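Item description
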Amino acid sequence: MTFCLGMRVEGGLVALADTRVTSGNEVITAHKISVFERDGYAMFIMTSGLRSVRDKTVTYFEDQLNTRSEPFDRLFKAVNVFVEQIRRVATEDKDALSAAGLYFDMYALIGGQMPGDKEHMLYLIYPQGNWVEIGKGTPYQIIGSPAYGKPVLDRTLKYGDPLHFALKVGVLAFDSTRISAADVDFPLDVAIYFADEFRILEHRYEKNDLLELSTWWGSRLRSLVNEVPADAIDAVFPKIPR
């Protein structure tokens, strides 16, 4: 499984991805975020699913970028070219994968901004090649293992939040997933896009980098349970004379 989280807030985009890749009994560490920066635009791609499908699709997309006579002016056009590569790989490999008992599976998150975009954008791409735009009402999307990180994001993240807050919440969502999903783990890669600046900041967290945060968060959650109003809870238990 994978944890890839993309967040779209007013100040830009935050992308987080674990780096654990499992294949049978084998576990390796590999990037799941690809960053592309050219004069006048910046974008990132995160993927979940079969690693072989991901690598082939991204390689084909990079080739399309490098051989284009003109750069993209809108991010959705880059998304459409990426989709073409997914369908190309499906045509080449889907039957062979199916014969081997493997399902053609690859989801992607693409975020960034091109010169013709009025603002930064974030898209979710499905294995079939169709895509949706991540809006401001629910300004995030997780691919891979979404269940464990959703609660903290649904309760806290708003489009108007600053990038600093979004990164903090994203790290907590990753930590919740890492605790509960055995195949999601450090190192954690981060990419931050600053609105209208056409640049992406990349960073990698090792386990020790976030150990203090993770320990504090776990202890604080446990402490807060004791502070929760408990009248409804107490009503379940019989009254014990003192």
Summary: The radius of gyration is 20 Å.
